[in-house]
Amino acid sequence: MFDRYEAGERAVLVHINFTQQGEWEDLSECQMLVSSAGVETLQVVTGSRQSPHPKYYVGEGKAQEIAQAVQATEADVVIFNHSLSPAQERNLEHLCQCRVIDRTGLILDIFAQRARTHEGKLQVELAQLRHISTRLIRGWTHLERQKGGIGLRGPGETQLETDRRLLRERIKAILRRLDRVAKQREQGRRARTRAEIPTVSLVGYTNAGKSTLFNRITEAGVYAADQLFATLDPTLRKIELKDVGPAILADTVGFIRHLPHDLVAAFKATLQETQEADILLHVVDASDDRFRENIQAVNDVLQEIDANEVPTLLVMNKIDNLDVQEPRIERDDEGLPRTVWISAMDGLGIDLLFQALTERLASQIVEYRLCVPPQHQGRIRSTFFQMKCIQDEEYDSDGNLLISIRMQQVDWSRLEKREEAVLRDFIVT
Q1: For residue 341, is pLDDT > 90?
Q2: 396 assigned ligand-binding residue
Q3: 231 by DSSP, 3-state: which?
Q4: How many CB atoms lie within 10 A of CB 3?
Q5: Is 251 annotated as a binding residue?
Q6: Is 183 annotated as a binding residue?
Q7: Where is Mg(2+) annotated to bind (predicted)?
Q8: Cα(404)–Cα(381) distance, rounded to whole angstroms?
């Protein structure tokens, strides 16, 4: 729906080390991003600064060095491993005489290449439009041929203003479509809630092995590769857990440090699966030297999408890349599984993961036997019947209903609140 810059596949990569921790990025991760985008890195320009320069982000001397590197290597694009302001991008492009993109633009480009479903393409386009709207310099009037242009421009409306107006209209159209998608997803979640099917959502840093684990558990055949953001479109599959029954496993997009806010906003419908999950499987690449920082980066994004309160089971993956690590379960002070060490590639510890998942979900399920007097039987029995949580029932000699129920702890708490805690009086100890 929009023109993309016809850049080549050859780039000069720029990475600056800052003394300020907030500006810190990882060079090796950026090189993986560039590789995932299908771009060849011709030269890496590095440097150190205390803070970004307002004009070029780097100093003027370093900017000249980058321009010389572009000329010497005949590169088509300069990629910064940092977020640039529109003015900095424009100044650098004027100096280097080639396209300059920052870390956010690079991630958005990878997402654009990977989107397969209609929903995924809409979400990526929305994120790109929001990002590029701050860098708008003509070239958008083709978005809708019947509006804008000669004869249809408002009084005093410049070409740039016309482009901005068409851009806003396109964003509104995408938001309306995504709103319909969100409603469809919400209907699916409500149906699963009514059927009391718990949802397990896979989250984790990009390239942690989520899709490999998903395929190992479900045999779904989801695309998995040793590259960043191999998974973009969410996939749901049903699994069976002992003592719990059927559950829904959701494979989601991977997170990354300083994930662009436009992406978080655009993927709101997709990330809703994470917010509404009963438990999160936080998959971590245990062989990564910086796995602790990756865990924190994922937790930051979970907090940003209001999913930090969802119960989490840590899954330390890729133990096959470690020298001495056996599959095992680590437990908390209450004896509940906290961390599981596995290898999704080799299938090591998958049985332990199922065991831990069953224990965690079963701990959220309550079972009660109630003795309900005749005056309350109609309403309460009808409620339990609608929730499909009745295990067995019978009547005693006094006409009381003896009923055994099994449901999620959260549903029992809601029911207690609605029934003004009268249910507590009916529990048979």
Answers
A1: yes
A2: no
A3: coil
A4: 9
A5: yes
A6: no
A7: 211, 231
A8: 11
- Rg of the chain (C-alpha set): 27
Q: Give the type of residue at 115.
A: A
Which positions ≥6 away from 261 have C-beta within 8 Å?
none
Distances (CA, A) of 333 to 128, 260, 344, 361: 46, 37, 27, 17
Q: Count CA within 13 A, CB hemisphere, residue 192.
A: 23
252 is in an annotated binding site: yes
**Positive or negative torsion for Cα 299, 305, 308, 313:** negative
205 is in an annotated binding site: yes
The reply to whether 320 sits in an annotated binding site is: yes
| CATH value of 10-101 in 3.40.630.30, 3.40.50.11060, 3.50.90.10, 1.10.3660.10 | 3.40.50.11060
pTM: 0.67
Q: Do the domains 196-363 and 10-101 match in fold?
A: yes
How do residues 112-149 score in pLDDT, each as one tens digit?
A: 777 766 777 777 788 888 777 776 654 444 444 444 44
319 annotated ligand-binding residue: yes
CA-nearest of 30, 4, 209 to 104 is 30
Residue 148's pLDDT is what?
44
**247 is an annotated ligand-binding site residue:** no
270 is in an annotated binding site: no
DSSP state of 226: S
Residue 83 marked in a binding site: no
**210 has binding-site annotation:** yes
Residue 232 marked as a ligand binder: yes
Domain ranges (residues) in the chain: 10-101, 196-363, 365-428
In CATH terms, is domain 365-428 a member of 3.30.70? yes
Q: What is the pLDDT of residue 3?
A: 39
**How high is the pLDDT of residue 68?**
92
Q: Is 229 annotated as a binding residue?
A: yes
CATH C-level class of 196-363? alpha beta
> Is 332 annotated among the ligand-binding residues?
no
Q: Please tell me the distance from the alpha carbon of residue 46 to that of residue 26, in angstroms, as a whole number.
A: 12
Q: What pLDDT does residue 284 have?
A: 92
Q: Tell whether 215 is in a known binding site.
A: no
- Give the pLDDT score at 314: 92
| Residue 212 assigned to a binding site | no
Q: Is 317 annotated as a binding residue?
A: yes
Q: Is 288 annotated as a binding residue?
A: no
Q: Any known ligand binding at 253?
A: yes
Q: Which residues contact 156 (CB under 8 A, 6 or more apart)?
A: none
Q: What is the pLDDT of residues 63-99, one digit of tens each?
A: 999 999 999 998 888 998 888 888 888 889 889 888 8
